[in-house]
Each structure stands twice: as C-alpha cells, then as structure tokens.
Amino acid sequence: MPKIAKNTFNGLEVLRNLHLNNMHVEEIEPGAFEGLSSLTYLGLSNNLITSLKPDTFKGLKNLKDLNLSNNSLRTSPNMFQGLQNLTSLNLKLCTISSLTMDTFVGLDKLTRLYMTKLQIETIESGTFNALYSLRTLILSENLLENIADDTFAGMPELEELDLSNNNITELGVSAFEELGKLTTFKIENNRIKELKANVFVGLKSLKLLNLTHQMLEKMEPDAFNGLESLETLDLSRNNVSKIEKGVFVNLPSLVYLDLSHNNLLELQPKILADCGNLKVLRLYQSGLRSLGRDVFYNLTRSTRVWHKFSQT
Q: What is the per-residue DSSP string for 18-32?
C-alpha cells in the first residue's frame, strides 16, 4: 500500500482503532482519514512516510493516540493540524533532525511525547510553547549538544524529562526554571563538564536527578540550589576530583547520593551537613584513600556508606 488515498475509509464512522503498521506506506493524501470521526488510536509505524501535509489528519477530531515511529519522517509546518484532542504522540526512530516553533502547533492536550532515536541536533526556541498539558517528554538518544535558556519554556505540567544519551556539553542557566512540576530528570550519558550555580533553579518538585556517565569535572557552589524535594542524586562515573563547599547545600530531602567511580582526592569536613536525611552514600572506587570523621557531620547513624578506598 504505497499510498493512502483521500476518502479511503468512508463509511467507517464507528471505527475506534486503526492499525496500518508495516504496510510500506509512502504517502498519505490530505483527507485520507475523513469520516473516521470516532477513531481514538491510529498506528502508522514501520512505514516509509517522509512528510505530512497540513490536512493529512483532517477529520480525526477524537484521536487520542498516534504512533508514527520508525518512518523517514521530516518536520513540516502544521503537520499535526486537526489533532486538537491528541494525548500521546510516538515519533521514535524517525529521521527528524530539528524541531521548530510550528512543529507541534495545535496539540494543546498532548500529555506524552516520545522522540527517542531520532537525529535531532537543534531545538528552536519556542518549539514546546504550545504544549501546555505535556507531562512526559522523551528526547533520549539524539544528537543534541546545547540546551538553551528557553528550550523548555511553555510546559508547566511536565513531570518527566529524558535527555539521556545525547551529546550535551552545556546547560543554560535558566533552562529549567519553568518546570516546577518536574519529578524525574534523566540526563545520563552526555558530555557535561561543569555545573554552574543555580542551573537547576525552578525544579522544586524534582525527586530524581541522574547525571552519571558525563565528563563532569567541576560543580560550582549552589549547583543544586532549589532542589528541596530531591531524593536521589547520581553523580557516578565522572571526573570529579574536588567538591567545593556549598555544592550540597539546601538538599533536605536527599536520601541517596552516588559519587562512585570519580577521581576524588578528598571530601571536605561537613560537606554533607545540609543532607540530614541521607540514608545511602556510595563512594565505591571514588578515588578516596581515606575519610575524615567530620565528613559525616549531621548525618544519622542509619546512613549506610558504601566505599572501597583506592590503594596508595
């Protein structure tokens, strides 16, 4: 089926689910789905679709879930026009290299957006401005290098953000300040060398922050400022040799901290004094040869420390 022609599905007004996966579809004519007014799920994965015209999805006013994964799709203006009730969009394994301001126009009710293993290099400012209802945004395994200050503006309901396995080297200082409801942030396996002060300000609801497998060497004091709800912080497998005083301040909810597999020369006295609820501290192969008693100042006896000291 190389082409889905206009009015192909006339007379199927009560149809709710339509699976057109693995059909070798190359082209969809505008109006192809007109008449499918009750459709809630449309599967178009594993086809050969390269572009979507503005009226491709005309008539699908009740569509909730659209799967376009594994196509040769590229972005075009208003490509999702007419999908005002869509809540889930899967674009995994498409060949999209950039996202622009008009890519997701009209998707006011979208709550889940999956874009794993595309070829995204750039995200234009304002790309996500219209996604007021979005709760999950997956951008893992792409080619992103920089996150600008306003990249994630316009998503006040976002709860989960996955930027893992990209080429990110730098985070904008105010990139996340509008994500007050975010609880899970995965950014492991990137190339970040430095965390600047207040880079995570605004993430007041964040519970999990995964920064493992970076090239992290330096964290400025107040790097984690504003993360009063953070429970899990993974900084393992980096190149950190020194942790400045003030890096771990204002983390009253922190329960789990992993500093394993770094190049630490020492931990300064009272470095964890503001982490009074810490229960697990992992220092396995962290580079440390010894630990001073005051490192654990203000920690409870129930704190479990996992370590293996480096040999002299």
A: EE-TTS---EE-TTT
